[in-house]
Amino acid sequence: MSRILLIGSPNSGKSLLFNRLTGLSQKVANFPGITVDVGVGKLLDVPDTQLVDFPGTYSLQPISAEEQVAVAQFEKALEDDNVEQVLCVIDATRLEKSLYFTLQVIRDCEKHGKPVAVLANMIDVLDRHDLAFDTAGLSEAVGVPVLPVSARSGKGVQAIVDVVRHHRTDAGRVPGNRYLDSPDELLRGTAHQLAHRFGPKGDVLVRSQTRLDGFFLHSLTGGIAFFIIMFLLFQSIFTWSAPAMDAVEAALGWLADLIVPHLGQGLVSDFTADALFGGIGAFLVFVPQIFVLTFIVGLLEDSGYMARAALICHKPLRIFGLTGKSFVPMLSGVACAIPGIYAARAIDSPRKRLLTYMAIPLMPCSARLPVYSLLIAAFIPATTTLGGLVGMQGLAMFGIYFFGMVCALLVTGLISRTSKDHYTDLPFVLELPPYRVPGLEPLLRNSWNRSRHFVVKAGKIIFTVTVVIWVLGYFPNYGADLGESWLGHMGRLIEPLFTPLGLDWRYGVAIFTSFLAREVFVGTLGTIFGIEGADENMVPLVDHIQASGMGLGSGLALLVFFAIALQCVSTLAILAKEAESRALAIKMFVGYFLFAYVAALLTFNIVSLFTG
């Protein structure tokens, strides 16, 4: 199958254009470092052709690990005989910066005999401000077709398809050795001249961005805006998603009441009630929170605010040995640690990248979200103020998220001051992308896909663990006495480890299984309590926990434990791969478990001291 390469600088709209050309839902965001892997999809209008999307890079002379991935893969792909053409995406609103990279791409394509087409994206922004861009003149000057396009509106997409279909004609012929022997210094000067001759005239876009930056980056208003935005982010996770969570819980309860009575008495009925509705159903209740979290974070990314937040955070993060660029991977870790670790490739400094790796697992990821939500719902009253906009449970969620972030900063600060290593350091340089109005449809689609992916990925693990837990808890006495089941005997073997936290063997088993994935904790408890009380409250797991006699100290200790412990096998595997060190992953796993246990023990004893 023939292949077309898609390459461009960060924030050029390349990934959104890739989605429009292929119909795939690759994540799109407006800050450097979001595309950290090579994406492949078939062109919708040319199904026998693959489009290959490379990570964004500013230059073919890479600095960061992410750029090294992009450049290495691109150079390798140019040697592939199946590659028939290269599409280079540029930001028409920032022409000089984009053209330097474009000329480097044309030079490499001349060496390998590959046709090139330049896609001048964001043309809709220029049209909206009545700014002219001479694409025909630029095309003649560089010797390759330059197409005005808008990935957001779809303008010019058909012209791209036409160029792909007819790339062997004169419109897509191999560039004629204009830059074959040109050094980078000469290309940089040429890019400046071309941008001045053919680019849009005027500073409307710059002045508009400067006004907004004057507010969002101001020492006073910028800081206030940052804390308000972060506070609203965490409030949205719990308080604003509550109606959807209630709807899912009601639907599952209705479905259980509809199905279970018709199954009669016996093995199938017990499995359906205990394992499916008790275990998996208890987990599904919290999926709306993952959707809301992904949507709000995507809103911040696409608007261009995320890069500003990174700049705001650079000075305080520097105290803890990190950089402003660490903010993006760390906040990505709020959704999932794995893309956060991938996004750390964009950090130029190897030393700060290592410290960011250590911080990301402590960020409160979406896999922890069901655990947090369950325990907060069980121990924090659901009272609200300000007309329902602010709730106690939302404040508790903000508090536990803030606690995880503080732990991450304390760990990196301690390590940066005490450890001696061979990693080099580099200065902090960050591009501020233009402010843009996020597209609602891509955000909703991405949130839906993210939630669905989380359910499918976690669902497989939860289903497997649920079946195993149910079998161990149901036999050999068919659920008559959970304490005398195989699971009960196994749980009592590990119970002494968790007794100092005020937890019995049931919670010990749930913690133990959560090392496969944090969210399994909810499914395991749902299955265990489902076996104990299958005739009532099959889905509302909160009721079972409140009736189990677990005290406030134990509940808060569990929250602290899950906020710190590194309990995800997938995260450990990716961490070992990205850091190229299994030893680092093992040390972090053991160190964070001991840290979590000691912190949970202190929490239990302090709370017990004050509450009796």
What do these coordinates show?
With 612 residues, this protein is an alpha/beta fold. The protein has a domain at 2-202: P-loop containing nucleotide triphosphate hydrolases (Rossmann fold), CATH 3.40.50.300. Helices cover 61% and strands 6% of the residues. The chain is built from 26 helices and 8 strands. The protein has helices spanning 14-22, 65-78, 95-112, 123-128, 135-142, 157-165, 184-198, 204-216, 221-240, 242-259, 267-284, 287-303, 305-319, 327-335, 337-343, 350-359, 369-379, 392-418, 440-474, 486-498, 505-513, 520-532, 541-547, 552-564, 569-579, 582-611, and strands spanning 2-8, 39-42, 49-53, 83-91, 116-121, 146-148, 384-385, 390-391. It has a 6-stranded mixed β-sheet with strand order 2-3-1-4-5-6, with helices on both faces. A two-stranded antiparallel sheet has the order 7-8. Helix 9 packs across helix 18 (392-418), helix 11 packs antiparallel against helix 19 (440-474) and helix 11 (267-284) runs antiparallel to helix 22 (520-532). The longest helix is centred in the last third of the chain and has 35 residues, at 440-474. The protein starts with a strand and ends with a helix.
